[in-house]
Amino acid sequence: MTLTVNPASPAVPPTPPPVVLTVQNLTVVYEVERPVTAVKNVSLELARGEILGLAGESGCGKTTLAYAINRLHKPPASIASGEITFHDKADGDLNLLTLGAEQLRMFRWDKLSMVFQGAMNALNPVTTVRAQLEDVLTTHRPEMKKAERRELAASVLQLVGVDRSRLASYAHELSGGMRQRVMIAMALLLEPQVMIMDEPTTALDVVVQREILREIVRLRDELNFAVIFITHDLPLLLEISDRIAIMLAGEIVEIDTATNIYRNPQHPYTKKLLGSFPSLTGERGSFIRSGVNNSAELS
Ligand SMILES: Nc1ncnc2c1ncn2[C@@H]1O[C@H](COP(=O)(O)OP(=O)(O)O)[C@@H](O)[C@H]1O
Ligand SMILES: [Mg+2]
């Protein structure tokens, strides 16, 4: 008789699943007197390392979708139906809709982080940048030694283009662009697999906005996290996204590569949206990622 032995763990770690997040038939309703279905039957897949742009006019449901994915929606918003699955590289599939409060707390920031609309005003005014970055590490990486926390906070800050001397600063001592970079550093600190950015640069002037976007693309190239980048600014999305989803009145009406959305839009609303930006119908501006992926074909 032979004994069955457990197979030895493979020498090479298994490759992580190519898709990191799947949203299936998600519907989110604001249960007010006249209920508003802000997200209608939305399905999408986010590939590992991909930048997915989400575009659509104000009020179409972008923020509601982002909050629901991170389970940050609050009453009167409720998820009426659908599934959200996170394909974790270590723990396999996580059904986000069934995570308990403690599991959610561990999940957020660690595996999926979010930079909110107006996040730069979310920094605590009475503690230093260092204290706020180290706080995230104390909570999520309790095993880390103080010196390691200090070093990691400083190096992530540098990664987003802020000098480590700024660790000692308070929010009011920083420009808007710098504050937003600090928020991005916080979102990157635990090396999440997905980062959702909801209009992260809208409040900034155009030059600072460009610099930060260039930084995000560079960091993605370096760290390979996936991004859902939300904005009403379609020209900007064409520059930085691998794929773009077009949202209209709660529905995703078209989702395709940035090149196809630009060159060969299918839905009438996508065509209308493209037509509403004069810069897109004339000469194309220079692209942030010139020579990379679809941008090369677009320019
Ligand atoms: N707390 C709320 N109660 C009722 N309706 C809401 C609430 N928040 C948002 N909505 C509605 O949900 C829709 C989508 O809003 P939102 O997700 O903020 O859109 P976007 O981010 O694309 O501008 C809008 O029609 C908005 O009026
Ligand atoms: Mg919004």
UniProtKB/TrEMBL annotation:
Gene Ontology BP annotations: peptide transport
Annotated InterPro entries: AAA+_ATPase (IPR003593), ABC_transporter-like_ATP-bd (IPR003439), ABC_transporter-like_CS (IPR017871), Oligopep_ABC_C (IPR013563), P-loop_NTPase (IPR027417)
ABC transporter domain: residues covered: 21-274
Keyword Nucleotide-binding in record: yes
Gene3D superfamilies the record matches: P-loop containing nucleotide triphosphate hydrolases (3.40.50.300)
Domain of life, source organism: Bacteria
Designated name of the protein: ABC transporter ATP-binding protein
Organism: Cryobacterium arcticum
